[in-house]
Amino acid sequence: MLKVDNVTKYYGDFPAVNGLTFEVKPGEIFGLLGVNGAGKTTTFRMIIGLLDPTSGEVTLDGKKIDYSVTDTIGFLTEERSLLTKMTVKEQCHYYGILKGMTEKEVDERLDHLLDKFGISSYKDKKIKELSKGNQQKIQFITALLNNPRLLILDEPFSGLDPFNVELFKNEIKEMAEKGSMIIFSSHRMEHVELFCKKIAVLKNGKDVLSGDLKDIKKKYRKKNILVKADIDVDKIKSIDGVLDVIEKPGEYEIKISDESVEEKVFKEVSKCKNVTKFAVEEPSLNEIFIDKVGENYEN
Q: Which string of b and e fits 231-259 if b means at least 16 CB within 10 Å?
């Protein structure tokens, strides 16, 4: 199990991370979120042992993370970190041997992953000859080469088309099913909702929202009501507790302050003609994120 226990990191007088605590168990995919500058990168660097915390402790299976355990960690960085003049094979040999693998082990694992991602023919091509999407595949492969027990994925779907996003999703789920601990960070909240049961949201280095995603949504008071009907928008907006009415293709989204407003909206909508839908939905993670952090993560 990975444990981040009351970790703080100062750069001079600036607290980049302040009192952060979370844990990731084998088989879990944990979402670590925050806008740029929130402290995610510093946290990742402390987890993999590149930075020491000012205070607090990071442990993997009860041990401090140092060079004795880093061979069991995989890290896909948000920034492209490939050596573009190398071939794919040379690049993967370089990373694999750094992780304590033999050349034979690297070749066997590389052939398996290249085949899985449909790019076996690129093995002897230079990185700079590949498209951005295929470079991202190689970067992902280098993070998976050593079958890591702990896998950190920072914006893994960058530059990928929908088909390849699905390939990555399936591989991430498969890694979790095999028992890997995965930390997942993405600007795409729908991906976070798909993968992560637990999350932590950072703002200015502090944890401002954390826990089980289902519990977070239940506790969040604001709700959305989706309606298909000939409604009087002004009448709906005049109901106490209605925050907004948004017209969407074929339906309306009515945002309410809490569940107590549902009945009042229902009474008004029931008077309307052509009512074919009235559905109360929990808010999206993106809405909750914006409310807690004050910024849209996707901008």
A: beeeebeeeeebeebeeeeebbebbbeee
